[in-house]
Design goal:
- With about 525 residues, the chain is of the alpha+beta class.
- The protein has a domain at about 240-345 and about 410-535: Glutamine Phosphoribosylpyrophosphate, subunit 1, domain 1.
- A seven-stranded antiparallel sheet has the order 1-20-19-15-14-9-8.
- This enzyme consists of two polypeptide chains, which are synthesized in precursor form from a single polypeptide.
- GO terms for molecular function: glutathione hydrolase activity; leukotriene C4 gamma-glutamyl transferase activity.
- Pfam families: G_glu_transpept.
- Its EC number is 2.3.2.2, 3.4.19.13.
- Belongs to the gamma-glutamyltransferase family.
C-alpha cells in the first residue's frame, strides 16, 4: 500500500459526530453540546446535509436508522423508506410505452420517507423536536452556504438533467450557470419548506401544501403519485439482522435493504486466512470480489419488500450456506456471472455517539445524483428516483407493484463486542456499500487499523457505475500498486485504476467506542467534504 494517512483519528470523551460535510458535523456537535442526545444530533446533521449536499440527499429521499439505546441495552432499527404509488404497475408502465423501468423522471419517484422517519425517531428517543433541530438547516437554506468542490462537480455533471425542469434549473443553476466553488448558494423555497415542517411536523410534508406541490409536479411530468399515497405513508420499526465475524458481531438492516448481502459476504470471507493472504494482496481482493459476486446473485434474486415477497433470510445469512458458497470460489480465476445492473451512489451516511452511550447509524438518500432530476415546484425539494431499483420483469422478486418498497442499497451498520457497540459505521456508494462494509470490517478486525486509517486505506468496488461501464468492471484505487492490479487482470478481472481517494469508493464515516479508556475515536472520509468532530 502506498497511500499515506492524511488525517489523524479524532479523539474525544463527551460525544462525537462524523458526517460527509463539515457544516453538518458542526450542526450535530452543537446539538450534543446543547443537551441533545445522539438521535437529536443525527437529525440536525441530516437536515443540514439536505441543504448543503442536495445532490446526495434531500427531504424528497428515504432514511434508515440503527440506534443503540443504552438504557434498554438493545438495538432499534427504523425503515424509513417509501413505497411506489398505488397506481404503479408493470401494466401501467408498459401501456405508457416503457420496456424497462425509467431511471429518472416522475415515474421513478417513490413516496419520500425521510421526514416521517425523523419525526418517528424523535418521538421515541429525542430530547428536542423538529422545531429546534431544523434551525441550522433553515439558516443555510435561507442565507446560503459556500458551494464545496464536490457539489460544484456534481452540478456541472448533472447540468443536462437539471436543465430539463425549470424548478431544478432555477435552484441549482442560478443565472443559468454552474455555481463556482465558494459561491454562496441560497435555496429560499427549501428554507420555507423546512420552516413549515419545523412548525407543523411531518403532517406539513405528507398532508399539506408540500404534498400537493409534490403530487402536482409529478403529475405534470407523467407521474402516478397521489395525495393518498403521501398521506398513508408510514415508517416501520424492524428487527436488525446479525452475524459474527471472528467474534465481532456485525449488525445490518433487514430487507428491503441489502443488509443481508453484507452479512453473506462477511460470512464467506471469514473462512479465508485474511491476515495470511496479506493486506492489499491480489489474492485477498480476488476472494472478496468473488464473494461479492455470489452474494449479489442472491441479492438480485431475493431482496425486495418482505411484506410482498417471502425472502429466505435465515438461510441466506447461515454460516453453513456461506461455506457452500465459499467452495465455489476458484482461488486463481474470476467467475463471470450475469452483468451487474448499473447503479448510482449518491447518498449520505453519518454516525453519532453521545456522552451516555447512545449511538446512531443513519443513512439517507435520493438514490442517484439529484435523484429523479425533479424539484417539487415552489418547495425546493429534490425528489428521489428510488423506484429505478424496480424491474418490469413480472417474474422477478423486485418487480414493480403498487404500494411496494423497492430493493434498497442503503445499509447503516454497527459492530458489537460483548453485546455493546464497538464501531458505528457505514458509507454511501449504492451497490458498493456492502463491499465497503466488508473492507472496513477487514481493516478493523484482521489488520487492526484505527478508524481514520481504516477509512483512508485504498478501496475497490466491483460493479458498473454507469451503463457505459464493462459488464464486470473492478474499480481499484492506485494505492494498492500496479503489480496488484496486473495480477488481478491476469486472474480475469476487468480491473481499472481510479484516481486516489475516488468518490466511486463511497464516503465512509465511523466512530469507535473504546470502553477501557473511556474515549471515542472518530473518522470521516477524505473522499467527501466531511470531518469527525468531538469534544
Amino acid at each position: 500500500m502506498t497511500q499515506v494517512l492524511g488525517r489523524p483519528t479524532t479523539l474525544a470523551v463527551e460525544g462525537m459526530v462524523a458526517t460527509p460535510h463539515y457544516l453538518a458535523s458542526v450542526a450535530g456537535l452543537r446539538a450534543l453540546q446543547s443537551g441533545g442526545n445522539a438521535v437529536d444530533a443525527a437529525v440536525a446533521a441530516n437536515a443540514v446535509l439536505t441543504v448543503v449536499y442536495p445532490h446526495m440527499c434531500a427531504l424528497g429521499g428515504d432514511a434508515f436508522f440503527l440506534i443503540w439505546e443504552p438504557g434498554e441495552g438493545r438495538l432499534h432499527a427504523l425503515n424509513g423508506s417509501g413505497r411506489s404509488p398505488a397506481a404503479a404497475s408493470i401494466d401501467a408502465l408498459t401501456a405508457a410505452g416503457h420496456t424497462t423501468m425509467p431511471q429518472r423522471g416522475a415515474l421513478a419517484v417513490t413516496v419520500p420517507g425521510t421526514v416521517h422517519a425523523w419525526e418517528t425517531v424523535l418521538d421515541r428517543f429525542g430530547t428536542f423536536g423538529l422545531s429546534d433541530l431544523l434551525q441550522p438547516a433553515i439558516a443555510y437554506a435561507e442565507r446560503g452556504f459556500p458551494v464545496s468542490p464536490g457539489l460544484h462537480a456534481a452540478i456541472a455533471q448533472a447540468r443536462p438533467l437539471l436543465e430539463q425542469q425549470d424548478a431544478a434549473a432555477r435552484q441549482f443553476l442560478p443565472g443559468g450557470k454552474v455555481p463556482a466553488v465558494g459561491d454562496v448558494l441560497r435555496q429560499p423555497d427549501l428554507a420555507a419548506s423546512l420552516r413549515l415542517i419545523a412548525g407543523r411536523g411531518a403532517d406539513a410534508f405528507y398532508k399539506g401544501a408540500i404534498a400537493q406541490s409534490i403530487v402536482d409536479s409529478l403529475r405534470e411530468h407523467g407521474g402516478l403519485m397521489t395525495l393518498d399515497d403521501m398521506a398513508v405513508h408510514r415508517s416501520d420499526w424492524v428487527e436488525p439482522l446479525r452475524t459474527t465475524y471472528r467474534g465481532v458481531e456485525l449488525v445490518e438492516l433487514p430487507p428491503n435493504t441489502q443488509g443481508v448481502t453484507a452479512l453473506q459476504m462477511a460470512n464467506i470471507v471469514e473462512g479465508f486466512d485474511v491476515a495470511g493472504l496479506g493486506y492489499g494482496s491480489a489474492e485477498l481482493i480476488h476472494r472478496c470480489v468473488e464473494a461479492k459476486k455470489l452474494a449479489f446473485v442472491d441479492r438480485d434474486r431475493y431482496i425486495t419488500d418482505p411484506e410482498r415477497v417471502p425472502i429466505p433470510i435465515e438461510r441466506l445469512i447461515a454460516k453453513e450456506y456461506a461455506a457452500e458458497l465459499r467452495q465455489r470460489i476458484d482461488p486463481d480465476r474470476a467467475w463471470t456471472p450475469e452483468a451487474d445492473s448499473p447503479g448510482g451512489g449518491d447518498t449520505v451516511y453519518l454516525c453519532v455517539v453521545d456522552r451516555n452511550g447512545m449511538a446512531v447509524s443513519l443513512i439517507q438518500s435520493i438514490f442517484q445524483g439529484f435523484g429523479s432530476g425533479l424539484v417539487a415546484d415552489g418547495t425546493g425539494i429534490v425528489l428521489n428516483n428510488r423506484g429505478a431499483s424496480f424491474t418490469l420483469d413480472p417474474d422477478a422478486a423486485n418487480r414493480l407493484e403498487p404500494s411496494k418498497r423497492p430493493m434498497h442499497t442503503l445499509i447503516p451498520a454497527m459492530l458489537l463486542r460483548d453485546g455493546q457497540p464497538w464501531v458505528v459505521l457505514g458509507t454511501m456508494g449504492g451497490h458498493g456499500q456492502a463491499q465497503t462494509h466488508l473492507q472496513l470490517l477487514l481493516n478493523l478486525v484482521d489488520f487492526g487499523m484505527e478508524p481514520q486509517a481504516a477509512i483512508e486505506a485504498p478501496r475497490w468496488v466491483s460493479g458498473r457505475g454507469t451503463p457505459d461501464d464493462p459488464a464486470h468492471v473492478l474499480r481499484i484505487e492506485p494505492g494498492f500498486g500496479a503489480a496488484t492490479i496486473e495480477r488481478l487482470r491476469a486472474m480475469g478481472h476487468e480491473a481499472r485504476a481510479t484516481e486516489p481517494f475516488s468518490s466511486l469508493m463511497g464516503h465512509a464515516q465511523m466512530i469507535q467506542v473504546d470502553r477501557e479508556r473511556g474515549i471515542l475515536l472518530g473518522a470521516a472520509d477524505p473522499r467527501a467534504d466531511g470531518y469527525a468532530l468531538g469534544w
